[in-house]
Write a structure and sequence with these properties.
mainly alpha; 67% helix
């Protein structure tokens, strides 16, 4: 089973988007991609605002707080 997944993953092209080998309805894929983009923007904003002395726990705590709608 893992080999099938790896083969499907290696055959997916970048144009198809991340995890193109997963079978899901187009509307669910769009929602997942939108959610991933929002999380990425939030993570970038938090990383830019944290001081260099911050550790991963600080980042995680703020990410969870900021990511909630």
């Amino acid at each position: 089973m893992a080999q099938d997944r790896n083969e499907a993953h290696s055959q997916a092209s970048p144009e198809q988007g991340p995890a193109a080998y997963l079978k899901m309805p187009p509307e669910r894929r769009r929602a997942a991609m939108t959610h991933a983009a929002q999380l990425s923007q939030t993570a970038g904003r938090i990383a830019a605002a944290l001081p260099l002395s911050a550790d991963v726990d600080d980042f995680r705590r703020l990410l969870v707080a900021e990511a909630k709608p």
